[in-house]
Amino acid sequence: MRRIAIINQKGGVGKTTTAANLGSALARLGRRVVVVDLDAQANLSLHLGTDLASGEPSTYDLLLGRNSFADCLKDTTTAGLRLLPAHIDLSGAEIELASAFGREILLREALDTWEAASMEASGEAPADYVILDCPPSLGLLSINGLAAANEVIVTLQTEFFALQGISKLVEIVQLMRRRINPNLNVAGILPTLYDTRLRLAREVLAEIRRYFPGQVFSHPIRTNVKLAESPSHGVSIFEYAPNSPGARDYLILAREIMAAESQDPELAVRELPVPAVEQLEATLAEMARPARASKNRKTPAPTVPTDAEDPDLPTVVLTPPAAPRVEADASPQPRPADLKPADLKPADSGGPQGRDEAQTEAATHPTLTAICDEPAPTLVSTSAPAQDPSVELDAAKDSSPVATPSPEPVRPESSYNFAPNSGAERDHMPTRSRLGPLAGKGLSGPTAN
Ligand code: ADP
Ligand code: MG
User: Fold this and answer.
1) Which of 104, 276, 343, 358 is 20 to 30 A away from residue 432, measured at CA?
2) Residue 432 domain-assigned (yes or no)
3) Domain ranges, residue 164
């Protein structure tokens, strides 16, 4: 059973949209999927048509030990997709659970119990995928998500501030792996809200790929209004607008994630239904058609280009069922599914080597360290990181890479510097600067100590 946490401490970067639509896509491709709403705003639950009445079992009751995982599950309108819904009550959970014993692993234990019961009863895991939609913070609920997961997808919006705060998130994942969950792998970095019309978005996408070489999913999720509309109808994109670019992008993402199923010991030995490749190929081709037709309109419409028109989007190659995969012809990097845990770090990162690990963690992760070691966690809201002292980076103690001259040549097309430089500035203040005269002075990309 693959357990995938969708995380980024920023809000509005497509986590919930990804949880709902990736979950739905996997279910449509024959997988048994559960999506878990770990956000008190319950956006995922509402997106999938569930508005819990007070008293109905939710994530909150699960974490408090009042109900089992199975008790809380609800069916959705998509066959094969179930939801563990959230309720506004969850907003109090971080405080209520502050002194609970083993508070970081409550969700993991609930999941383990559910899985073990199913294995005992039927010899089979109760689901193929559990997708955990984390809230926009690095507090106890996100820690529970990361502790329960064995894979992480980091969603990054392709906007100017994409990499702001990313080093903190990277460090938290690494710390989780060291302290609580050594099995945590990186499924990949997922660029979202990608507006193909904007040069800025293309440059940010290139920067993300340069910053995390080989770790970025081959196909970004494009900005598509149908994805923004579908939550208000309480259904996934596949029911609301199955031929939209949004549906296509999430289907491709699901295929890319499924390509790594052989790495999961349980799924590898199970006989999973194989989606009809020809049919899927035809569906994808059909989906691409309206965008191509729009080229002939007299008034230029702001449509999403097809893959063929957009050099940033890779060609989708659908191979026979045994090895479903998506290949990027533009980028020869290994696919995210092939990555190993240690891979989630900025390119050329110096890392914390040569330093006392505990000291480094205490210095740079007061919040998580508190959660791991102290009786009560410090709750963190990172919606406004610059004002929140608990997420401030201490530039002097920061073990992350600092700027050195980039070995890369200046890209003539590029007008911005998105990559963080160092320490606090890297996290909170991406510098907008013209390249050219500044190139080679530490402003052109992520670099090492
Ligand atoms: P998060 O869970 O990270 O806070 P959401 O998934 O809720 O982010 O997305 C924030 C907003 O952006 C929502 O209104 C959502 O409908 C919209 N949105 C997300 N992804 C897309 C996309 N690819 N295209 C258009 N709108 C999107
Ligand atoms: Mg959300």
Assistant:
1) 343
2) no
3) 2-295
CA atoms of 13 and 382, how far apart (whole Å)? 13
Q: What local confidence, expressed as pLDDT, does residue 418 receive?
A: 45
The pTM assigned to this predicted structure is 0.72
User: Pick from 22, 71, 15, 68: which is nearest to 43 by CA?
Assistant: 15
Q: Is residue 433 in a domain?
A: no
Ligand 1 centre to CA of 225 (Å) is 10
Structural domains in the chain (count): 1
Q: What is the pLDDT of residue 19?
A: 98
Residue 231 CB less than 6 A away from ligand 1: yes
For residue 357, tell me if it sits in a domain: no
CA angle 58, 63, 65 (to 5 degrees): 95
Nearest partner of 30 among 74, 80, 73, judged by Cα? 80
Instruction: Tell the residue nearest (CA) to atom 11 of ligand 1.
Output: 12
Is 3 near ligand 1, meaning CB less than 6 Å away? no
Cβ proximity of 221 and 192 under 8 Å: yes
**Which residue out of 9, 13, 17 has the highest number of ligand 1 atoms within 8 Å of its CB and is therefore the one to mutate?**
17
> Average pLDDT for consecutive 10-residue bins of the chain (449 residues)?
96 97 95 97 96 92 95 95 95 88 95 96 95 95 96 95 87 93 94 95 94 94 97 96 94 93 83 63 63 47 41 46 39 41 44 39 40 35 33 32 38 42 38 28 29
CATH code at position 281: 3.40.50.300
In the reported structure, the alpha carbon of residue 236 is separated from the centroid of ligand 2 by a whole-number distance in angstroms of 15
CB 26 within 8 A of CB 170: no
